[in-house]
């Protein structure tokens, strides 16, 4: 079976066309005459049914006749059965010719889960008698269906309907996808909020775009996102969230978007990394298409955002106002309205006619206006219909669209806009199955073009089974707006939600969709990548055409893979442990695509691969040395290869004749080629001239676009490298060719854009031979790296100059290079010089266009040699020797500099000698200085000036820093300013690891202050305080203080009213805060106080009506916390942990006011005492009355004893009179919003009942728990994660089983529950075998059910 069970004439049309071809091919098979005669009957009946499909599809779209749908379903089943028989006959014939015998057993059902029963697999190939019987049965079914078509009134169609296109025609085109009309007002309003609104109590604020599907929310967000610049936001990221709010995935996407190479999977590590990356940076994050209504998930995701700079923004797009409320965006919400008719008409015309009006086609305007009215102002509908009519200027065609019956279908049946249904209805028939096929993808699934094309090919959906044809299909679907580029990754594509709904709709009820199973994978984090082997029964899947094992731990394939004679695509991408291909792989003569990239441990290939002459894609060819392995001459069998090819282990070529026989020059479809020898240049390496002869005979076809040569051992390169004959070669890399003493002549190439030369240790001079007769006229990027013996770079002296287009030049780790840069670099904008201590610029070198400069491990003389840098905006200096301050002759040219980074300059004592050159730094806004241990001050003389427009200043590990020029920082301790004309605009200051810093004054413009480990900064308390009159000149919003051993108190005064976030951590001597410290901070939204061992009391929290989150942890001496409720009515998160001496905490009035509290964690506070509650609240229960919205609760036994019914009080030690020992208790069952519950209690109460809303339950430190109570879990039908830890006596789980919804079970430090008990033969196997993820003491118990599920997805997802 090649295609999925998807209804519709388009799919059946493709299936029938394929049947015609297979029937024709069957004539060449060695079949019994009787079988051949019966197959001829099929050939006479199939064309009749084929001619009826067009009419049947159109009629069943309107659902006017249910019998037609039944008829089409029977046709579909019949087509599959016919295809199965024809495939099996072909496989039998192939086995006979290959002398393959295998006793087949009906074991596939044990391998593929029952949930895949819609895929009809035939495990036993049929015998001759079975063949005749099945053929007879199908013939009768064919005749019956033909007869029924008359009863149904189906009419045979002849010819193509309007809109039909031949395969050879180029895809229709419309203007760029992001054409937008009518959103300028909304765009301007949002940009104004982005750039001017500094609101947000947490340092960032949420801006919401709210509207119905298809109205243009994503388009508007994209417009705004692309409008902002790095000057507005230092970091920005786009994330398509969709209905699965996967925190780990979202965090990873953000990290990758801001430049982190993320290989982490642990959420904690990911969030720590993101927290570090965002720290004190102003960021913009777009969360597109958000559906999440779970505050806990949003709360968890946002934690790293708190480290960002003030003014950071998050834009969300959503259809749901509840989402806006959860994410705190109600005060900045934009309700997006539909477009006006004239605006919608403009969008429609742009995609239909290529212009935004009808001036050139006035005869179509009236019809166009009527069509647009039916789009109801939705730009997606107008865009899709415009794409449908693109290039079609026939008035009757437009009228047919306008008058189609599909407009009249009730939207309520499917929520699919009639305009979108119409766009599908008029798709060419060859595109319909390809589009409907995408119904298999989950919403917002990002797919690559080649990935989808390979799946179409494997499914037999293309009229011409080639990648080129698939690319044409794909491009046409893009041009018709069915696919659009992903906002986060331009190489990937997505479908709009409504387009995805359309695909699901047209696919019909019988479409098997794996979205649910993929969601399970996301929700439960099942580690399917841990699969390390395939069973032999894989060979039973005789119809398998597509097998994707990418990124698994598989080490080899069983020999039974050789029985998959219809396999066309085998993907082993990034199987990093893969060692060996099966010898029988040579049987797969229909294999077209073999991707083995990222299989570094694969060292050879079996010689039988030479039989795979139909290969179109082979990512890697490994030259073997021994008998039975592939030799280089076998490459001649793969003349159809295209795309990328790496030829490895060329040192094994012992006979030059093999290179000649490889016939590489005749493989004209390759785009990229890598030729690699071993990196071992020892005595075993051939010292003769054979390597240059081998390389000479490996000359590729002139169509090649990219060439990389690695570890070549010749003394020079053959002449074909650099030959202008290669008119398409735009990328060339020569790497680790250590014996080579002469570079090839490359300058004459007219198309070479990127050249990388690395590890050429034999090169001492790059001279005129490098240029040849040319000037590198098209070269845009040039890299020299690890050239350890390179001494001189000589340039030709010709007028006009070399490298006219060079924009990026990198010279790294060339320690002996003493020459100078070329003089003519008229286009250079990015220059990196690293590890070249004696290199410098020529006095004639012009760097006027240079914008980015990075210098590392060089001498200060290089800086002094650089003159005339008027365009430089970014400068990074690292490890520069002999530099005590920035050279004045260098800094005087930095008139456009915006960002300056200095790191590891161990001799740097100051930045500027006397400050006279600072006037040239008028554009400098950001400055980071790291690890400069001798830096004493920024300017050697205190009367020097300071960059007045500097907004961000960060100093890390500057141990000798004593002063930041307090006389020039606007406000001194007495409030005066020594130089009123020098008003500093500093907004963010970071001081980290500056122990010698003693004095600090702050400008009133400062918004963020971070101080870490500045142990001698003893005046901080006085400097930050305001007088009692509430001086509001300060703009400080974020204050973070950590590791201040000298700080014992905040002396008098108050923090500024502008403060929004306040954090104090690791101040071991801090004893108290002034009571009125926060009395003016009415906008304060976040307080965190951690690890202050001597702190006894907190400041008053009065007037903090905007406080949302309060965290107090590990303050061992803390005795009381101020009353919360009346002061903090908007508090949503409260965490109090590790406060050993805390006694006073909550009372009834306090809790009565915390109605919005959603997260409560109280743990490890053994001395806590609660004030009694009024009797009526005791009787009704405590938490469910006072905290009705609680979503997450974390408690230990000290708190739990106050919340339990009287029946459980006997489990605990007596509670003193006046406490809550007498309260009637609390039923956790009534907390209907609770989703997360963590209880760590020495003694477990036997009769506690939990709420059915729980999705996560964690139980730990229970000393007396021997068996998990049955009633504890019986009502938890939504539970997804269960964790049990540190329960030393726990020996059994409920015999009745665990909740069926459970996806992850983790048990730690419960010694009586061994991993073996959960394995296949263990006593808990029956209870847990259906749970995809079971982890016992960090041992991942492999679940065969989960294994089958993953294999089912990989094998059958797109068969």
Automatic annotation (TrEMBL):
Q: Per the record, a Pfam family?
A: Rx_N
**GO BP terms in the entry:** defense response; response to other organism
One of the record's GO molecular function terms? ATP binding
Boundaries of every NB-ARC domain copy: 184-352
Highest taxon of the lineage? Eukaryota
Q: Does the keyword Cell cycle apply?
A: no
For this UniProt record, give its keywords in alphabetical order, as a comma-separated list.
ATP-binding, Leucine-rich repeat, Nucleotide-binding, Plant defense, Repeat
Q: Which InterPro entries does the record cross-reference, listed alphabetically?
A: Apaf_helical, LRR_dom_sf, LRR_R13L1-DRL21, NB-ARC, P-loop_NTPase, Rx_N, WH-like_DNA-bd_sf, WHD_DRP
Domain Disease resistance N-terminal intervals: 11-104
Q: Which residues form the signal peptide?
A: none
* Classification via SUPFAM superfamilies: L domain-like, P-loop containing nucleoside triphosphate hydrolases
Q: Which residues form the R13L1/DRL21-like LRR repeat region domain?
A: 632-760
Per UniProt, residues of the Disease resistance protein winged helix domain are 440-503
What protein name is recorded for this chain? Disease resistance RPP13-like protein 1
């Amino acid at each position: 079976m090649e295609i999925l069970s998807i209804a519709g004439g388009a799919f059946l049309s493709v299936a029938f066309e394929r049947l015609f071809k297979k029937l024709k091919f069957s004539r060449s098979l060695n079949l019994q005459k009787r079988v051949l005669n019966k197959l001829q009957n099929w050939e006479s009946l199939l064309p009749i049914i084929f001619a009826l499909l067009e009419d049947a599809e159109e009629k069943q779209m309107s659902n006017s006749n249910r019998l037609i749908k039944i008829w089409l379903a029977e046709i579909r089943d019949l087509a599959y059965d016919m295809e199965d028989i024809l495939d099996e006959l072909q496989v039998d014939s192939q086995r006979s010719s290959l002398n393959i015998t295998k006793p087949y057993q009906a074991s596939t059902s044990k391998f593929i889960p029952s949930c895949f029963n819609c895929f009809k697999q035939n495990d036993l190939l049929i015998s001759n008698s079975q063949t005749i019987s099945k053929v007879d049965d199908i013939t009768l079914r064919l005749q019956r269906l033909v007869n029924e078509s008359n009863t149904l009134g189906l009419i045979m169609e002849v010819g193509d309907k309007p809109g039909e296109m031949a395969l050879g025609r180029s895809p229709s085109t419309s203007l760029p996808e992001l054409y937008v009309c009518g959103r300028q007002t909304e765009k301007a309003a949002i940009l104004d909020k982005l750039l001017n609104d500094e609101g947000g109590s947490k340092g960032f604020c949420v801006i919401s775009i709210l509207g119905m599907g298809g109205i243009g929310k994503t388009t508007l967000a994209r417009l705004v996102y692309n409008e902002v610049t790095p000057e507005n936001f230092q970091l920005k990221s786009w994330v398509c969230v969709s209905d699965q709010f996967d925190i780990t995935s979202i965090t990873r996407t953000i990290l990758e978007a801001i430049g982190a190479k993320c290989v982490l999977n642990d959420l904690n590590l990911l969030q720590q990394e993101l927290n570090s990356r965002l720290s004190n940076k102003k960021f913009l994050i777009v969360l597109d298409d958000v559906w999440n209504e779970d505050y806990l998930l949003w709360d968890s995701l946002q934690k790293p955002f708190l480290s960002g700079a003030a003014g950071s923004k998050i834009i969300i797009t959503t259809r749901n106002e509840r989402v806006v409320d959860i994410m705190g965006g109600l005060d900045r919400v934009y309700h997006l309205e539909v477009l006006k008719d004239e605006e919608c008409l403009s969008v429609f015309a742009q995609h239909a006619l290529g212009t935004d009006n009808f001036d050139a086609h006035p005869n179509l305007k009236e019809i166009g206006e009527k069509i647009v009215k039916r789009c109801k102002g939705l730009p997606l509908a107008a865009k899709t219909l415009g794409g449908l009519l693109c290039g079609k200027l026939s008035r009757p065609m437009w009228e047919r669209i306008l008058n189609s019956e599909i407009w009249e279908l009730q939207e309520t049946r499917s929520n699919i806009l009639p305009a979108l249904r119409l766009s599908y209805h008029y798709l060419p028939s060859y595109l319909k199955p390809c589009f409907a096929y995408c119904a298999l993808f989950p919403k917002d699934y990002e797919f690559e073009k080649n990935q989808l094309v390979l799946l179409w090919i494997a499914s037999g959906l293309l009229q011409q089974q080639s990648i080129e044809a698939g690319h044409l299909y794909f491009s046409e679907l893009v041009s018709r707006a069915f696919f659009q580029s992903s906002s986060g990754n331009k190489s990937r594509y997505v479908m709009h939600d409504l387009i995805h709904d359309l695909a699901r709709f047209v696919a019909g009820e019988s479409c098997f969709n794996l979205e649910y199973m993929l969601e399970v994978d996301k929700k439960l984090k099942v580690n399917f990548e841990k699969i390390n082997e395939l069973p032999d029964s894989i060979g039973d899947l005789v119809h398998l055409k597509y097998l994707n094992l990418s990124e698994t731990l598989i080490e080899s394939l069983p020999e039974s893979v050789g029985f998959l004679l219809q396999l066309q695509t085998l993907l082993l991408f990034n199987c990093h442990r893969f060692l060996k291909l099966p010898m029988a792989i040579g049987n797969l003569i229909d294999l077209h695509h073999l991707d083995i990239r990222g299989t570094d441990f694969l060292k050879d290939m079996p010689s039988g691969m030479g039989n795979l002459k139909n290969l179109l894609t082979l990512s890697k060819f490994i030259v073997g040395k021994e008998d039975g392995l592939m030799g280089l001459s076998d490459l001649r069998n793969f003349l159809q290869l295209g795309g990328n090819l790496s030829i490895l282990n060329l040192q094994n070529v012992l006979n030059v004749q093999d290179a000649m026989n490889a016939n590489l020059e005749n493989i004209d479809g390759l785009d990229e080629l890598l030729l690699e020898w071993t990196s071992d240049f020892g005595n075993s390496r051939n010292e003769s001239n054979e390597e240059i002869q081998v390389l000479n005979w490996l000359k590729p076809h002139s169509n090649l676009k990219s060439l990389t040569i690695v570890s070549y051992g010749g003394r020079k390169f053959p002449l074909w490298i650099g030959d202008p004959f290669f008119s398409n070669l735009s990328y060339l890399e020569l790497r680790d060719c250590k014996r080579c003493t002469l570079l090839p002549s490359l300058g004459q190439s007219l198309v070479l854009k990127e050249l990388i030369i690395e590890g050429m240790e034999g090169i001492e001079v790059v001279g005129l031979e490098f240029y040849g007769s040319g000037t590198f006229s098209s070269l845009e990027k040039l890299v020299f790296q690890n050239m350890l013996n390179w001494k001189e770079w000589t340039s030709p002296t010709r007028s006009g100059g070399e490298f006219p287009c060079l924009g990026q030049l990198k010279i790294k780790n060339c320690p002996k290079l003493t020459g100078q840069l070329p003089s003519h670099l008229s286009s250079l904008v990015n220059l990196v010089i690293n590890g070249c201590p004696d290199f410098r610029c020529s006095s004639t070198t012009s760097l006027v266009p240079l914008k980015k400069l990075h210098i590392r491990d060089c001498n200060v003389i290089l800086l002094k040699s650089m003159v005339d840098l008027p365009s430089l905006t970014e400068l990074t200096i690292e490890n520069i020797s002999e530099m005590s301050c920035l050279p004045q002759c260098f800094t005087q040219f930095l008139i456009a500099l915006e960002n300056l980074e200095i790191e590891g300059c161990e001799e740097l004592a100051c930045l500027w000698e006397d400050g006279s050159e600072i006037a040239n730094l008028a554009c400098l806004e950001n400055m980071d200085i790291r690890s400069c241990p001798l830096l004493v001050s920024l300017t050697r003389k205190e009367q020097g000036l300071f960059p007045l427009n500097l907004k961000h200043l960060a100093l890390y590990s500057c141990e000798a820093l004593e002063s930041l020029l307090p006389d020039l920082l606007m406000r001194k301790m007495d409030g005066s300013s020594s130089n009123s004309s020098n008003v500093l605009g500093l907004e963010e200051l970071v001081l980290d690891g500056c122990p010698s810093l003693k004095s600090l004054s702050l400008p009133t413009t400062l918004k963020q202050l971070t101080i870490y480990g500045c142990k001698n900064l003893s005046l901080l308390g006085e400097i930050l305080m305001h007088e009692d009159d509430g001086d509001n000149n300060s703009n400080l919003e974020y204050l973070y203080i950590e590791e201040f051993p000298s700080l014992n108190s905040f002396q008098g005064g108050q923090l500024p009213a502008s403060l929004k976030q306040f954090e104090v951590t690791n101040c071991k001597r801090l004893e108290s805060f002034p009571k009125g410290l926060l009395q003016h901070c009415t906008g304060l939204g976040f307080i965190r106080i951690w690890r202050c061992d001597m702190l006894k009391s907190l400041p008053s929290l009065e007037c903090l009506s905007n406080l949302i989150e309060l965290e107090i942890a590990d303050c061992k001496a803390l005795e009381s916390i101020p009353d919360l409720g009346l002061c903090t009515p908007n508090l949503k998160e409260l965490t109090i942990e590790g406060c050993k001496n805390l006694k006073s905490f909550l009372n009834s009035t306090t809790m009565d006011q915390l109605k919005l509290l959603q997260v409560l964690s109280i743990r490890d506070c053994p001395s806590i005492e609660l004030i009694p509650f009024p009797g009526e609240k005791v009787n009704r229960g405590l938490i469910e009355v006072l905290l009705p919205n609680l979503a997450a609760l974390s408690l230990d036994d000290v708190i739990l004893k106050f919340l339990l019914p009287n029946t459980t009080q006997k489990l605990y030690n007596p509670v003193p009179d006046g406490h809550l020992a007498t309260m009637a208790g609390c039923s956790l069952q009534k907390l209907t919003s609770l989703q997360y519950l963590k209880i760590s209690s020495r003694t477990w109460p036997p009769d506690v009942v939990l709420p059915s809303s729980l999705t996560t339950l964690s139980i730990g430190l229970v000393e007396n728990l021997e068996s998990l109570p049955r009633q504890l879990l019986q009502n938890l039908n939504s539970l997804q994660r269960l964790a049990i830890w540190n329960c030393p006596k726990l020996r059994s789980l409920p015999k009745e089983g665990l909740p069926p919804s459970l996806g992850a079970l983790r048990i730690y430090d419960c010694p009586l529950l061994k991993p073996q008990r959960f394995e296949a033969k263990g006593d808990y196997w029956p209870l847990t075998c259906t749970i995809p993820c079971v982890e016992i003491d960090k041992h991942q118990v492999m679940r065969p059910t989960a294994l089958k599920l993953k294999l089912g997805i990989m094998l059958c997802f797109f068969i």
